[in-house]
Amino acid sequence: ECDVFNPLSVLDLLSELPAPVGVFSNSDHLQTVTALAAAYLNLPGKDWQTCYRAKNKAAMRQYLKALDDGACWFRAVNDQRSLGKVIDDVPFPCIAKPREGVASLNVRRLDNAAQLQSFCDQFWQEQPGQPLLLEEFLSGPVHTLETIGGGKSLIALGGFEVRLSEPPHFIELAAAWVPYQPDSPHLQEMFRQVRRFGVGLGSCHSEFVITDNGPRLIEINYRTVGDGREFLLDRMTDHGLFHAILQAHVGNPLELSPPTQAAQIRYLSASTSGRVRRSAP
């Protein structure tokens, strides 16, 4: 056993084991540690700086600002004092979300300062000191881009058109698969943005808002898409997506083609709170 969030602890443990042929994790939280371990062991791995920027949403926004590529207003806050310093500058509506959060958990659209203050109060009561990222609200439909890299090559598989619940929450209700086409203006631009960000080896799931000015990056999750869509992609991909990901992480060439089928996935969500007593026949 070891502290998997500490790369030194991971390396100490690996030094006691037979030499690995690859180092891999699909966890949001472990991409940076995994990349550092792979680099130390001279094994195929993701760039650890890109992994860190992808997981830390404030670092991602700062990097996009430095690149002057789709930057938007943002601030990171971790208590009432830091919130008080920026609250007069917040463009409403805004989005508040954990700086290193996962999916739509604790992600909220807020329309005024009172709502923002109330949300932050409740969040910090439950998670004291945890940083929140405030950023401008980007209006438009959500579209993902799914990529896989084999070292020097990066393949765009396509993306999902995502249907969300009404604000202030962002609950995914359905997703329709859109195969990658070279003449697709949105997917081409998304592909350009993730490549410039530094995405390469392995699987990556990126989310965009299609605004009036084109795709704007919401976040990069440097791992495979979740919520059941990863199994859908695995079934649609020749030789299997999971097999290709593991092959990339042990240095073998990619053997897959982007899926061309049509597909849709729907999620069942409760309209009210309650307890499940039995399943449908």
From TrEMBL:
UniProt KW keywords: ATP-binding, Ligase, Nucleotide-binding
One Gene Ontology molecular-function label: metal ion binding
Segments forming domain ATP-grasp: 61-250
Keyword Cytoplasm among record annotations: no
Keyword Translocase attributed: no
Alphabetized InterPro entries for the sequence: ATP-dep_AA_Ligase (IPR052032), ATP-grasp (IPR011761), ATP-grasp_PylC-type (IPR003806)
Top-rank taxon, per record: Bacteria
Protein name: PvsA
